[in-house]
Amino acid sequence: MDINPLANPKGVKLLCELCQIPAFLQCKFCNVTYYCSLEHQKADWIGIHEKICDRLAFLRQPVPFLASREDRERRQKEVQVKKIELIEMTRTLAQKMLFEGKHEEAVPAAMQSLRYSIEVYGVSTIELVPSYLILGEASVGLGKLTQAEEYLAKADWTVLKTPDCSRAIQSKLYRNLGLLYAAKGDFPEALNNFADDIYHASEEFGTDDIRTAGGYFHMGNVFFRQGKMDVADSLYRQVINIWYSHLADVLKSNTPSEEELAQSRTRILGPVKGMFEEMGSGLDEAQEAEAVQILNSIHDIREHQTTRLPQDLAQACHALAMLYFVLGDIKKAKEYGRKAIVASDQVKDDDFSQSLVEFMKLCERQGTVN
User: Fold this and answer.
1) All structural domains of the chain
2) Which of 204, 222, 237, 312 is the most exposed place for a label (fewest CB within 10 A)?
């Protein structure tokens, strides 16, 4: 995180990476990124620069002289590919930080994604919308609602003038508008936007997809804030059901059978361990963070409800247990698995109880190979 003091060479305009005012500090590692203050340099380093410093060194270095047209075209394509990779990486990281509640830290990554989206796609294209939405959501989280309105207005206008805009992008736009109105306390308008979010997500992915579940969750939060717990509970139940089914499918498709394990044990321990290590969540970093946020939020609500249904808490615990298992946190998986067993004592569902028993066996099996 070292920096170099910098006196701007005459005639060279150097601007701060975060605020675009004249810069006087230079990143000592990439030598192509500048800041107006130590505070902005630290904020950018924590938010994104540490992860992309070497990438920026490549993208911002002076273009080398290439004699042949073929070499110049190859170089141009390489730079374009690197920029697109950077856009996807910074968006995912920014969204992940938002789900983790790190709104301030998400801004530098979101700004990078917007900056390179403009370079690659132009100033008024639909490809810029995801970055506007992330910046809008970060602004809502920081309580900067006027700024959030500006970002979301840009996104809304771009969507309106793009007839073939995907339903996935429209879903995200309405979700962010819903969050903005909820922050303003305008619950009817928030619910209208979350309803539009769910509609477009359902059309694109299906009503029981994890990408639709976020709309149900935020709508549930609005009813929760209004004290309408019957409606909130039904929406939270829908969210848990969606994630529970998704995670159960991930476990089922990735878990080796007893026969496969027995065959591996006859050779060496390595193959057995490898079977488990190859298991993934099937989610990107942002979706993993979203799952942790949503499932923990609903679990906490369930745990403090005096009138909850036993099945609701048991299923929330089991879903969290499966999530932590596929994320590789076996300690937390066992913890929530045991909580699910306790909560399920009053649940008369043999299939659910059996699935819990099998899951705890899987956790113990995983523990023996780590």
Assistant:
1) 1-62 (no CATH), 65-165 (1.25.40.10), 246-370 (1.25.40)
2) 204
